[in-house]
Write a structure and sequence with these properties.
The relative contact order is 0.16. The chain is of the alpha+beta class. It is globular, with a radius of gyration of 23 Å. The structure holds uridine 5'-triphosphate. The site of uridine 5'-triphosphate (UTP) has 23 residues, from loops.
């Protein structure tokens, strides 16, 4: 087998050995001689697709993160759903409903994450909740919500689902086994996002198996590039889609087609919108919306001082809007961002790996770095964003951890309460 790198005619193994040596990742071939021919070839194939230069430069850049000097911070304006008058609400609802009825609206669900905190085996969307009298998976809950919107507005919303290489097959098999929740199969599109190797804190790439490098999805910010490279943006355009709602897989109170949010974003003249919740604890580690050098952005908690978190005008706080991953993008905005390289951030995660002795190690504490791009880094490429603050107990019940405020138990209680109230 010959190396496929441009112009290179060395045997795969020799070429890869040289590359690994160059980037101090020779341990990835530690078990090579003990592998079957099939596994040897699998490993070489995978290694030949990895961009070691990129991983190396990401690891190096970790040490040089700095806050831009002289950056001007300002608050971002926001609407509060609860404070919109009944009359205005009705107008917005009617306007948004008319737009939804035109069928130019799509839903994108990001389900490419690893779900490491929850620890569920399989795609997070297959995690089931006991919504007595029946059990429903996160995918089914979302499918039901979109079906309800279809019925209400007499449309067929195209549903785009971002998966990862790790969970794509299982996700599609799951939808098959559930008969696509009776959703029109032609209106569901799966697409696989990009991935990057995980590294330990010294920069060594992890092995998932003796014959497999540990690669994982590279963050929800990869959405834009993946939508475009998998021809989803062109599919949307063919279908005449003008607005796209984007959310994660795990917020079971998400409103997938909210006419008020849609109308408000359009009337406010912005190409992007985000729902927020109020940061009740001013000292929590949540990031908040702001403007940096007059562009929409997020402010990391390490930069949120006492002065910033308490700043208010007549009790209206200036820096207390938390991002809940509920976004609207115009099709033009989506396309624009797909051509932009978003910066990488480092997340620390708990990942089971193979140690130097070939043993599988299940870490007790986070042990690896994952490089991720985030959707919110796209905001600064726009002059403004429409923020709509919603009530947490009505629209935000994400499932992140086995226990605590973002657990299946808490989310289930909120969901059942909301169902009860709306019936
Ligand atoms: P989180 O950042 O909460 O990650 O993702 P997660 O994968 O659900 O869980 P942890 O952090 O490993 O425990 C928020 C949303 O973004 C999606 C997730 O699937 C979830 O819906 N996501 C995240 C992706 O689609 N791709 C990614 O690379 C990362």
């Amino acid at each position: 087998m010959l190396c496929r790198n441009g112009g290179c005619t060395m045997p795969d193994l020799v070429c890869i050995q040289e590359t690994l040596k160059k980037y101090n990742q020779e341990h990835l071939l530690r078990f090579f001689d003990e592998l079957s021919d099939n596994k040897k070839s699998k490993l070489l194939n995978q290694l030949s697709t990895i961009d070691f230069e990129k991983v190396d430069s990401l690891f190096r850049s970790l040490k040089t993160i700095s806050i831009p000097q002289g950056e001007v911070l300002e608050p971002l304006d926001y609407f509060i759903k609860n404070e919109i008058s009944v009359k205005e609400r009705r107008l917005l609802e009617n306007q948004g409903t008319e737009i939804l009825k035109q069928g130019q609206y799509a839903v994108v669900t990001m389900a490419g994450g690893q779900g490491t905190r929850l620890g569920h085996k399989g795609p997070k969307g297959t995690f089931e909740l006991n919504l007595s009298p029946k059990k429903s998976s996160l995918f089914e809950i979302l499918a039901d919500k979109i079906k309800q919107a279809n019925k209400r507005y007499n449309i067929q919303i195209p549903w785009y689902i971002m998966t990862s290489e790790t969970n794509n097959k299982d996700t599609i098999n799951y939808f098959e086994s559930k008969n696509y929740f009776d959703y029109d199969k032609n209106n569901i599109h799966f697409f696989i996002q990009n991935k990057l190797p995980l590294i330990d804190t010294s920069g060594n790439i992890l092995l998932r198996e003796t014959y497999q490098v540990y690669e994982a999805s590279n963050g929800n910010g990869n959405l834009f590039e993946s939508l475009a490279t998998n021809n989803m943006v062109s599919d949307m355009k063919k279908r005449g889609i003008k607005w796209i709602f984007v959310s994660g897989i795990d917020n079971i109170l998400v409103k997938v087609a909210d006419p008020i949010f849609l109308a408000l974003t359009i009337n406010n003249g912005t190409e992007i919108g985000a729902k927020t919740i109020f940061k009740k604890d001013p000292y929590s580690k949540d990031w908040v919306f702001c403007k940096k050098d007059s562009k929409p952005a997020m402010l990391g908690y390490e930069r949120i001082t006492e002065e910033i978190t308490t700043a208010n005008i007549d009790g209206r706080f200036l820096y207390r809007e938390i991002n809940i991953l509920c976004h609207l993008f115009s099709i033009d905005a989506l396309e624009k961002i797909s051509n932009i390289d978003l910066p990488y951030h480092r997340a620390t995660k708990k990942n089971t790996y193979i140690n130097n002795e070939g043993m599988k190690i299940v870490p007790e504490e986070p042990n690896s770095y994952k490089f991720e791009t985030f959707i919110f880094d796209s905001f600064r490429f726009f002059d403004n964003i429409t923020l709509l603050r919603v009530q947490e107990e009505k629209e935000f019940a994400p499932i992140k951890d086995p226990a605590g405020i973002y657990s299946p138990d808490t989310a289930t209680k909120l969901y059942l309460k909301e169902e009860f109230n709306s019936n």
